[in-house]
Amino acid sequence: MAAGYEAVFSKEDILFRFQSTLCDWFDKSGKDYPWRQTSDPYAILVSELMLQQTQIATVLGRGYYGRWMAQFGNWEALAQAKEEDILKAWEGLGYYNRARNLQKTAIRICDDYGGVCPRDTESLERLPGVGRYTAGAVASFAFGVQAPIVDGNVARVLSRLFDYRKPVDTAFGQNFLWATAARMTPGERVRSYNSAIMELGQQVCTKGVPDCGECPVAIWCLSKGNEGLEALPLKKAKVAITKKSESVIILTHEGRVFLERESGRRRNGLWKLPEIPSSETEDLEELMSFDYAITRFKVTLKVFELPSAIRGKFAADREGKWYNFNDEASLPPLGSPYRKAIQKYQNIRNDLG
Ligand code: SF4
What we know:
Blueprint: H1 5-8, H2 11-29, H3 41-51, H4 56-61, H5 64-71, H6 75-80, H7 83-90, H8 97-112, H9 121-125, H10 132-143, H11 152-161, H12 171-184, H13 190-203, E1 242-249, E2 252-253, E3 256-261, E4 271-272, E5 275-276, E6 285-294, E7 297-305, H14 308-317, E8 320-324, H15 336-352
Parallel strand pairs: 1-7
Antiparallel strand pairs: 1-5, 2-3, 3-4, 3-8, 6-7
Helix pairs in contact: 2-13, 3-8, 3-10, 10-13, 11-13
The structure holds iron/sulfur cluster.
């Protein structure tokens, strides 16, 4: 921490002042979200998993969190729900394993813990889909356990506070962050502190140029005003994005669309438009194409229509089902790109009258 303080205050005093200042700032300026108004571990875990790869604006603004909590309000309700209903409620958020893991966790808590969520991070980390950060978040937010958390925001704040100039996405860098977070997380006001350090990264110590003039803990920051501050935290060189294309058929009949089950771990349980090898698309009419991103791939989805003479045979040869595409509720859980393709197709049809 800043030179000069140690001459007057002990390290513990400085740390206490830092923690108190940050918590006081959060109590005044922190945003109010539904999961910050509860200490229910279930509600907190739902929010944490939803927010893992999705923006708050989507989770709240588009009603996902509220709808989920209304439909599956506790461990028991989620444990007993049908997978299809769960995937449907998650539809549009992507990364569907988060939803499946939430249900597996609910089942485990009902079966192994009598419906009572464990408080300690070791037990929490053994639950499906719960990593070190999520375990720390649930333990501290729901139970007030002195557990550190490190997410992207916290990593940025800590890197800048300590002017840490090594990559944080290495084992060494992660050790630094977690050990530092553990040293700095207080026993008292832990819920406030963990929320505050994340909020500081969201509101003030933002990606790119931080707003150091508004920072409540600027006097303790070792990188404030230093060259290269905007680039912190440092990361290893990025994995290259690979481009690929995917060809699918949109086959409709009397207001219904032909869909097939997805296979593969990531999208198991979801449905899609039937895929065909690109070598078989030469004579087909391309209706539309657009890009979507998944993990390290940028995929160009090409949507084709079949000549009417072979549509019946195509459907008969494949294992799929017909669904009414005018009735949103009757569609099975669909991957976002295929839902988008169906909506675009409907728009094209409407435009043609
Ligand atoms: Fe971040 Fe600036 Fe605050 Fe340091 S002073 S923690 S760089 S906002």
